[in-house]
Input
Amino acid sequence: MAKAYDVVVIGSGPGGYVCAVKAAQLGLTVAVIEKRTTFGGTCLNIGCIPSKALLHASEVFAEAGHKFDALGVEIAAPKLNLEKMMAHKDATVKSNVDGVQFLFKKNKIDTFNGTGKVIGAGKAAVTGEDGKETEIEAKNIVIATGSDVAGIPGVDVAFDETVIVSSTGAIALPKVPEHLVVVGGGVIGLELGSVWARLGAKVTVVEFLDTILGGMDGEVAKQFQRMLAKQGMTFKLGAKVTGVAKDKKGAKVIFEPVKGGAAETLEADVVLVATGRKPYTEGLGLEKAGVVLDERGRVEINSHFQTSIPGIYALGDVVRGPMLAHKAEDEGVALAEILAGQAGHVNYDVIPGVVYTSPEVASVGKTEEELKKAGVAYKVGKFPFSANGRARAMLATDGFAKVLADAESDRVLGVHIVGFGAGELIHEAAVLMEFGGSSEDLGRTCHAHPTMSETVKEAALATFGKPIHI
Ligand code: NAI
Output
């Protein structure tokens, strides 16, 4: 039996490691159980971080080929060294996962390498590679096991991570596919689809809904689809994939129109299946321990992250809410504070969402569709990047910012941006919304000139008056 801890966290992704670090900072004794040999979970090892390395590198490659010339930078056509690009991705992952290890050491957090399991209140266990099980006593157990690839409901998908790949294989392809078929026009499909499109693949996205990025602001999604189409990506919308199978040349993707009609087949040399993720609860011993799951297989928690068993908590992708690293991180901080006797809280109404494509898409708060459905009277202010001086200087004039404010109180209810740097710009809206700010507060806040941020300011101005530059 190992020593008794105040907190043992199962899983070291953004939810788990942040919870562990914050708990240690607040004076609690902490241990983390991780089955991978490196820390950081899906996000750092095979998700957010490596994909961003490839997104950036492929964007630079595409810009060197298409944009430099217009800026007066004449170079020979860029040559792709995929091996080197992948090495950059691997080095990025290494520095990040090593960073988490450093944080654990710095905060005197003990680590156990192996598969964690809940035995009951006050007791967890870890099974190492040698099959040996060690019990760990802890006043509080935190389940932060994240999520796994969901596959396509009702379709047998045999992932080999070479020809039929999930995001894991799609960030490690040894060569640029000639034709990449992406099943699912959500965040993963569009981010990784655009990586390979920029590197020269023909990319076809097959999406069940009649829009990409379902759930995002409809106007933003539509304009964004046009931009991606201009970059060479092809879309089959309202198309339900019913079969994915390997064949001699590569793979076949069979889909049928949702509204009825004949099935079609696409030939691909690589198929990326990006149709969502599911909470990861396998092998955790939850049923035996009496931890209740909800109807979607997520660990059920109350507003204090406590499961059906006192002393056992859960957070991140394994519980309700958006599967986003930053949502998990904030839950990690809040739970650590609660365990340390403080008042931890997450404001789920102000969680930004970013799609790291080129240009980026970002949003926070309600979409127009949501406001309409809820019967909320609202005002809309929009401003295009094409009327922004900095955007013109940078040849980044595609896109717009949109501010939605309550018709009566003027409180900002949602901000949606598609355009250069949207993923950074969105945070001034998030801060404003955390403080219950109005569109007039945003529009009257002095913004440095010339910056892309002025598009957000002018969109805010447009909700209650006239923007200056259109
Ligand atoms: P997603 O839920 O974003 O998109 C999946 C898409 O697949 C949906 O549009 C759905 O309609 C479609 N689909 C489902 N079944 C289909 C079928 N049979 N045929 C055709 N289309 C079908 O899931 P995704 O992209 O796999 O991402 C998983 C999770 O990871 C999401 O929760 C996402 O938010 C998160 N993530 C977030 C990132 C970010 O914030 N930048 C980056 C990557 C992932």
About this structure: The mean pLDDT is 97. The chain has three domains: 4-149+278-339, 164-275, 353-464. Residues 353-464 form a domain with the Enolase-like; domain 1 fold (CATH 3.30.390.30).
